[in-house]
Design a protein that fits this description.
Number of helices: 7
Largest sheet: 10 strands, mixed
Strand order of the largest sheet: 2-1-5-7-9-11-13-15-17-19
Distance between the termini: 53 Å
Number of domains: 2
């Protein structure tokens, strides 16, 4: 489709981007370009972006010329099935996959396989549909219990715009665990735009980890769209430790009864970082449980945003939904905007939400110093204990050890 480029900031941003060659349905791609051609970047007047200004992204320009080599030796889980991307190019994958698992580049997918991708008309998700160059299609067959973790590493280098689309389908009574690890090898103005569409089948147990540790000048915008069938269990862990600008969106549609949904997030920020977590859990039917726990530590002039929404529809009785956001400000210049929300239309439910923001517990620091611990070590211990409440929800010991190593390397904290 021929693009009509106007003079707004979004048009200037898109001027040198290459349109997608993936087999998305033509009507969806055309609708995406129609939307983009008549839109600009959202402003703080848009409710979903009330606390996040996009000027830093709107002013980015890309040369798409990086040819840096990367180190492909990193592995989080010793026996994982590892897929490595460099600036959107799949450069390494396993030679053999276990029975019941099919993984391929989304470049090799048919229009039928991509027919159900999400097409919500918002700037970054629509841009992903219009410009995605690669990603993975993961299919777990019914009654398949994957013992090996699927590990996906994304490296960005240079001054690149990279749009990736992942599709994950787990069929009935299956079990899988997937890690998506985002890294960069140099400081640049790269922007990674990732959308992951997830279908959690009946009776399926799926755990998804997102670890964001790109360099402090990189930009990252991602969204997970998840649909849960009955009797399923979906858990998403999001750990943000670095990056100039990070926006994490999660939209979970709980479509079947007796589902459990768990969203856990940890963000540790310093400098002038900005991290925005925007989540939706939509309970559409009865007899379901959701837990949401996000914890953040914000230092220097960094800014954090948490906006979590839980919907309980009219016929969704017997819902238990719990949402909590807690933050510690380490400096007078650090900022948090927290907005937990419940929207309930049923009358037989048990739901709660809460948000706390405060300074470091000086009494706990004093207690540790009285026992011979230095002030710096005491503060590190108190802060690490605070965020560990969310981190330790990661039950995979290898993944948790890797996260601990990243925190120690960047902040010097011990767990």
């Amino acid at each position: 489709m021929q693009e009509v480029i106007s003079t707004n900031k979004l048009a200037a941003f898109r001027a040198n981007l290459a349109s997608t060659t993936l087999a998305f349905p033509d009507d969806k791609v055309n609708a995406a370009f129609d939307f983009l051609n008549t839109s600009d970047f959202p402003t703080t007047k848009h409710e979903n972006w009330k606390y996040t200004r996009l000027a830093r992204i709107a002013n980015l320009r890309f040369d798409q010329t990086d040819v840096a080599k990367i180190d492909s030796s990193l592995r989080i889980c010793a026996e994982s099935l590892q897929f490595i991307f460099h600036n959107g190019n799949l450069i390494q994958q396993p030679e053999n996959l276990p029975s019941g698992l099919m993984v391929k580049s989304i470049q090799d997918c048919s229009a039928e396989e991509l027919s159900n991708v999400s097409t919500e008309l918002n700037t970054f998700e629509t841009m992903n549909l219009a410009y995605a160059s690669n990603g993975l299609f993961i299919h777990v067959a019914a009654k398949t219990n994957l013992e090996q973790v699927i590990e996906i590493i994304h490296y960005t280098t240079g001054n690149e715009f990279v749009a990736l689309r992942n599709v994950i389908k787990t069929n009935a009574l299956s079990k899988a665990e997937i890690v998506m690890n985002y890294l960069s090898l140099n400081e640049s103005n790269s922007l990674l735009n990732v959308v992951t569409d997830v279908e959690v089948g009946e009776g399926t147990y799926l755990i998804l980890h997102k670890i964001q540790a790109e360099e402090g000048t990189n930009f990252h915008v991602s969204k997970v769209n998840s649909k849960q069938d009955k009797d399923s269990n979906f858990t998403l862990h999001t750990t943000t430790l670095n990056g100039n600008f990070v926006r994490n969106e999660v939209n979970v549609a709980v479509n079947g009864q007796n589902c459990e949904t768990n969203l856990y997030g940890t963000y540790i920020l310093n400098g002038t970082q900005h991290v925005d977590n925007y989540t939706i859990i939509d309970h559409k039917v009865a007899h379901c449980l959701s837990n949401e726990l996000y914890k953040g530590v914000i230092d220097d002039k960094a800014t954090a945003v948490f906006n979590g929404k839980v919907f309980v529809r009219k016929d969704a009785q017997k819902i238990n939904a719990f949402q909590s956001n807690a933050n510690v400000l380490m400096s007078d210049d650090a900022t948090v905007n927290s907005k937990p929300e419940l929207e309930i239309y049923a009358d037989d439910v048990k739901c709660s939400h809460g948000s706390t923001t405060g300074q470091l517990d000086e009494e706990a620091v004093f207690y540790l110093r009285a026992r011979g611990i230095s002030e710096k070590s005491a503060r590190n211990l108190v802060v690490s204990a605070f965020v560990n409440d969310a981190l330790e929800k990661t039950e995979n010991e290898e993944i948790l050890a890797y996260i601990y190593s990243l925190v120690k390397e960047r902040f010097g904290w011990e767990f």
